[in-house]
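Bit of a strange request maybe. I'm writing a small parser for structure token strings and I need a real example to test against, not something I typed by hand. Could someone generate the tokens for this chain?
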Amino acid sequence: MSKSDERHILREKNQKTFYFALLLLFFFQLFGRWIESIYRLSLIKLDPGLETAGLLLFLYALVFLVVPKKKESLFLKGSVFLFLLLRFLCPFLPIRIQVIVAGLGVANFLILYAAWLSKPYRHLQGDAGYALILSIFSYILLRSLGYSVDISMDGSSVLACAALVAMAVYFTWRHFAPQECEEELTEKQENESSGCWMDVLSAFGNFALVVFFFTVPHTLVCWFGYEDAHVPGRYYVSALLIWLVLTDTEKLSLHSGKGNIIYNALFAGLLVSCLILGRPQLPATVADVNTIALHEPPNFLLICSFIVALVLPVNIRQIQARCTFPDPQAALLRVVPTFLFLLTLALLSIIINVWGYVPGGSVLRNHFYLPFLLMGLSLMLPWRKGAKVLTRQRLGIQGRIVFILLAGFTFGLQLVQMVYIHPEIMSDKKSLRIGTYNIQQGSNLSGEISYREQCALLESLDLDIIALQESDTARISGGFVDPVRYFAETLGYYVCYGPGTISGSFGTALLSRYPIHSGEIVYTFSDRDEIATLHVLLSIGGKKLSVSCNHPDGGEAAMTAHVLQVLEKQKGYPLAIAMGDFNFTLQEAYRDFLTSHFPATAAEKVSGSVMPDKNIDHIFVTESVEVLESHFIPPSHSHSDHPLHWAVITWKEEELFLEKNETTAIKDQSLF
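Reply from user aminoacidic:
Good idea to test on real output. This should exercise your parser:
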């Protein structure tokens, strides 16, 4: 074979690798949107309804089983074009339609994935390991460009969506066809393929890790802390580059069956350990309080990131080598049932967070490691009979250039976004514009995704301090968007995010145009939702202002415990603000507890808008703070199910701007 023929074959293989990477990327995107859209429609009613029937749409894939063999190729070609069409349309449709479109898209991918695992179509994978890496890079890049919002899935960038789908259409038109293989599967291979349930199950366990952990470094900041939000992205890119170098060796030293079991067990152990050790101790009684100062991430969590990066491509490539079915229909009989593993992991991750709304859900409370434990265990399934040694893999110059450019651009973008510009602070300002905003996890009254609209609203109000509620991150139910970081970097705020994935709260956060001096999270007794209150000390003109962001919920005991801890934390601060979604009206007894330190509310000065009936979003201020004006933006215009409540406040000069020799009075009373 001449060198030109070798280059042609290598070029063809690389193109198939890029093609498979695109289809994997689209599957990850559609699967996430499918689960997210069902959750958002349930969220607006606080109760699952008819939309949950959308979970059955994956069963459409079983239609392929009744397709005659003569029409199999035509059906598969139609499936791939339908899959690409659904992927293109999904971001631009109403959320109720997205349930159907994304669900059918997932079903079509299952059909295609079954074909990819079969002898006639296995050549279309190219190199599955590199394809997975490429899809991960692409997903990270798309999220990085949108500050954790996937710009190709939010409906704002038709060009990005169309370009990706157009590339996939081109590759489909050029390459999608069965291939007559000269060699037949041996009897041993036939027997192995007919019984390799564990191999396919492990593949979906790997896909779960990609979806939940690997492609969303921006949303993992709640594990690493907001001191350095882009640590995950940088470490992942570095680890993937290491993998790219390692796979060019003759063979991997860890690639024996026993070596892989040890390697994967180490990964699963570290991942689950960091989740368990990172969990907060939840108060068991009304009198218990757990205070956690925001801190830097532990080193073992960073090590875990490297192991994840290096393990995933190994398993995908091994599954590609071990699991070859005689035809797509035989593969589908394994793919559809094992897909339930990925679906179960997605639902389990949601139920663990909303345990208070699920019968018997308290059993799962604070056990966020469970889905990741199952994912980690699935990594070891293919090694039950030993593993083959990987031979040398070649990408060629074309493939290397693509990977280097993509990795370099992604890594560079992560570094650039580490430094976002804060607005110029007016040190002589005599008033502040403050607000509280329950963003309902980025949903409006109809359940539509509304992060961009919410961001635009905040920009128009030009607030100095914003308390956010239901701003939880790293959830498949919210599309893995990190709204706190998205708002902060888009608008240029300092940011302090409270509870994250490991803690299981729905998220309280503070955005500030003034530097954040320090902050802490206080957990109090809860019987429905975890109650985690964020207390922050701000630097204004060199002095300190105490602000608490609140979102309690539950029975009388839980609500009382929360109010008492707010008073305890703010005690001694003459200049303090408590704001948020308090889940009680001003006519309830909880208001009376707060009057000892917060005698006034911004609602008393409402102007230019009408205060909602039974309002539960409040801004409480101490006697030294004066409310100049106050407003409510109703849910019909706030792009949430809550009003956006904002106010303009001022202060008594002699109390806020103390002389240097008087500042110790406040410092001695510091709660931080």
